[in-house]
Specification:
By secondary structure, this protein is mainly α. Helices cover 47% and strands 5% of the residues. The protein has one domain (8-144): Orthogonal Bundle (Lysozyme). It is globular, with a radius of gyration of 15 Å.
């Protein structure tokens, strides 16, 4: 392997490690009192995922901080929530994946996606952001766009 051109699996492992570090930094950063009052503490355990295998990311380089910011705005980084206004049919988990989008991700990724499972919610969000951009989260763009 050439040091200048790491393998896709090595690249995914590096990016995942960076994402974990960003998550830990966010968790340790001083909390906004309003956000703390609105939701539970972040669950960092979700970042140890099978996505490290690189099965669905490939060679992509994506904006991991944007993915984190979207999750923070959508659910306050809480996997155990549904859309506050319309319930679970309008959004589930960290990235508020709706059931029809989970089915769409299942077809694109090639395996069943259960948005109630943190790793599947994550994998679907990664695939969507990497392949289709941030349009799936336009409703909360005022919160996460910088």
């Amino acid at each position: 392997m050439d040091k200048a051109n790491p393998s896709p699996k090595a690249l995914v492992a590096i990016l995942t490690a960076l994402f974990i570090l960003v998550g830990i930094a966010h968790a340790l950063a001083p909390k906004d009192p309003l956000k703390k009052a609105l939701g539970p503490q972040r669950d960092i355990s979700m970042w140890s995922l099978r996505i490290v295998d690189g099965d669905s990311i490939g060679n992509s380089i994506m904006d991991w901080s944007q993915l984190w910011d979207i999750g923070e705005c959508e659910s306050d980084c809480n996997q155990n929530v549904c859309n506050k206004q319309y319930g679970c049919y309008a959004g589930i988990g960290y990235w508020m994946i709706i059931p029809s989008t989970a089915k769409y991700c299942s077809n694109k990724i090639g395996r069943g996606i259960d948005p109630y499972k943190a790793e599947d919610n994550f994998e679907c969000a990664v695939w969507l952001l990497d392949n289709e951009g941030d349009r799936h989260w336009n409703q909360s763009k005022h919160c996460w766009a910088k």
